[in-house]
Amino acid sequence: MSGKPQRLIALLAVLQVRRVTTAEALAAEFGVSVRTILRDIQALIDADIPVLTERGKYGGISLLPGSQADLSKLTASEADVIRAVGFDLGRAARLGAETAARSAAGKLTAKRRAPLRGDPPLALSDVLTVDNRGWFAADESPDVASLARDLRLARRLRIRYRHSGAAESQVYVVDPYGLLLRADRWYLIADSESRPRMYALTRLEHWELLAETRRLRVGATLAGTAAELGRSLESRHEITVTALLDADRVDIARRILGSRLRSVVPGPVARDNTTVSDTTASSNEGARATVKVAVLKAFFEGTEGELSFPLRRESDEFDYGYALTVHKAQGSQWDDVMLFDESFAFREHRARWLYTGLTRAARKLTVVR
User: What is the pLDDT of residues 304-337, one digit of tens each?
Assistant: First the structure.
C-alpha cells in the first residue's frame, strides 16, 4: 500500500467484509506495524467513521452494526479523492475536489447527536483540530488542480521555472511523476535529463503539456523519488555554527530552523559589562543562549553557487558578519573595533548605547563621528 489515504480506504473495505478482525491481522495484511494500524483506525474514528474497537480475548476491530459506511455508495471521483488525500477537506479543495470529498465524507461518516448526561467521553475529533498550514505562510495559491489534471495524462511537460534567488526563469522539458505536498508546500516531482528534481509550484511560472508519453526511470515511483529527494536534502554535508542568541528568541529559532537547530545551552544574563547567573535573574531580559545550527559547508568554502537549487532553497545560508549593530554585539568582544558613533539617535539612552559600543574593544578602538 503506497500511502496512508489509500490504506484508509483499503481498511474500510476489509472491515466491510469481515465481521471482526484484529490489529495484528491487519498489520500483517498491509505490511505495516501494529502501531501504524492503530493510528489509521484512530484516523477513521476521528473522521466520524463508525469503527468500534474492543479490548480483550473476544475483542477486535469492526464497523458498528447498522452503520452506513458503505464504500459501494462512493462514485469513482469520490473514491479517487479519498484515496489521494484521505479525509482532509482542505487539501481536497486545493486539488479542486472539495465537492467530491465532502460528498464522500457525508456518505461514510456517522450521524452525530448532541451528547447527553452519562454519555461516554467526546470523540477526539470534537476536541482536536489540525491545521497543516505553515505559520505566516503567504497565500500564493498555485493552480494545483489544473496541474494535477494534466499530470494524470502521463505525458511530458515543458515548464518555465525560476530557481530560488534567480532573476530569470529557465525552460525545461521534464518527465513528471506527480505532486508532493510537504510542510504545506506543493512540489512537482519530475525527472530532468533522467535525474530526479523537485520544483516548487510557487515558482513554476508556466507549464505546457507535450504530445510525448513521459519516460520515467525504470522502477522509479512518485513516493520513492520524493523520499529520495527528501533524504538527499536532509542528509547533506553540514558543519555546525555556534552562536549566541537572546534567550527570548530561542522558541522562534526552534520554529524556523526545526531539526537544523542542533542544541541550545542556556547561558548567563548579561547587562552591559556585568554577568549574573540565570538562577539569580528575575526574568529572561538580557539572557543569552548558546545555539548550534547546522549550515552547509559550501557557504564556508565559497562554493555555494555550485549547490543545487532545491538543496540551497531548503538550507540556512551563512555569511560572515563584517559589521554588527551595537545591540547585536552585546556580550561579544574583539581586539580591534571601529565604532560608528550613532548615539545621537538613542536620545535618553545615548550614554548606555555609547558605553556598550566602546566596551566591545579589548585592545584598540577607533570611533568615527
Answer: 766 666 666 666 676 666 688 888 888 888 888 8
Look up cell 541550545; give the residue: 264
- Cα angle value 179/132/264 (rounded, 5°): 110
On the question of a common fold for 4-127 and 144-233, the answer reads: no
Question: What is the distance between the terminal CA atoms of the chain, rounded to a whole angstrom?
Answer: 70
* 4-127 CATH choice from 2.30.170, 2.40.128, 1.10.10, 3.40.50: 1.10.10
Q: How confident is residue 83, by pLDDT bands cut at 50, 70 and 90? A: low
> What CA–CA distance (Å, rounded) separates 243 from 318?
12
- Distance, in Å, from the CA atom of 295 to the CA atom of 262, rounded to the nearest integer, reads 11
Q: What is the rounded average pLDDT for all residues in the chain?
A: 75
Tens-place pLDDT, residues 156-199? 999 999 987 788 999 999 999 999 888 778 899 999 999 999 99
At the topology level, CATH places domain 144-233 in SH3 type barrels. (2.30.30)
- Cell 580591534 -> residue: 336
Whole-number Å distance between alpha carbons of 115 and 118: 8
Cell, residue 189: 516531482
Q: Residue type for 85, please?
A: V
